[in-house]
Amino acid sequence: MSSPSSSPLSSSPPSSSPLSSSPTSSSPPSSSPPSSSPRLPLSVNPLPLSAAQEQQVRDLYYARVRGYCAAEIKAFATCALNRTISATWACRTERLAMNGCMIGHATREEQDRARAEWFATRETRRREREEKEAKRREQEKFYRDWWGLEERERKLRGEKGGGGASGDDGERAR
Predict the structure, then answer these.
(1) How far is CA 141 from CA 39, 72, 73, 138, 147, in A?
(2) Burial 140-168 (b: 16+ CB within 10 A, else e)
(3) pLDDT tens, 10-52?
(4) CA distances from 120 to 37, 73, 92, 137 (A)
(5) Average pLDDT, the chain
(6) Furthest-apart CA atoms within the chain: distance in Å
(7) H or E element in which residue 117 lies
(8) Number of C-alpha atoms within 13 angstroms, CB side, residue 45?
(9) pLDDT band per the 50, 70, 90 thresholds, residue 155
(10) Number of helices and strands (H, E) in the chain?
(11) Of 144 and 81, which is predicted with more confidence?
């Protein structure tokens, strides 16, 4: 009995399923790319971030949540001032209000906003980093020129003050 019931069920669905899915699967792939294109804009993370960059996003996220709950945090901190263990029960209402506020604002949407803000300010941070590096190079060059470090380094390496060094001295004298 078990073999007749299993054979009709196992033989008919697999044979009809590949045949019926083949013609229907040829038309959905043409409709599949349009359905996948709406999924691309929904991606909040356009680039994979390094651990340090993820930490920057988290710091931004935590700062935003603390900003929303600044009043509750201040109330709890004021209550807990000069208290140790007694702050647990003496400041219970302030602590619960602070935690409720933080939990209420610590959402996935807020993480996505922090990530979007991080990506929006990426170019600004890159420009600031490049300006800082240019300023550092300029200060290092001034320091080397002021103290004559290039000349000392050449002497330490054993280079003679021949042809190449006279061109440098001429530039320095200007």
Answers:
(1) 51, 51, 48, 5, 10
(2) eeeeeeeeeeebeeeeeeeeeeeeeeeee
(3) 444 444 444 444 444 444 444 444 554 444 444 555 678 889 9
(4) 23, 28, 39, 28
(5) 75
(6) 107
(7) helix 108-120
(8) 8
(9) confident
(10) 9, 0
(11) 81
Residue-wise DSSP of 11-37 = HHHHHHHHHHHHHHHHHHHHHHHHHHH
Is 118 within 8 Å of 57 (Cβ atoms)? yes
Q: What does pTM read for this prediction?
A: 0.50
* Tokens found for residue 126: 């890159």
CA distance 76 to 79: 5
Contacts 24+ apart (CB under 8 A), 78-81: none
Is the backbone of residue 140 left (phi > 0), alpha (psi -120 to 50) or beta? alpha
Q: Which two tokens stand for residue 156?
A: 């330490």
Residue 43, classed as helix, strand or coil, is: coil
Closest CA to 110 of 58, 47, 50: 58
- As a whole number of angstroms, the distance between CA 139 and CA 33 comes to 55
Among 56-70, 100-114, 139-153, the minimum mean pLDDT is found in 139-153
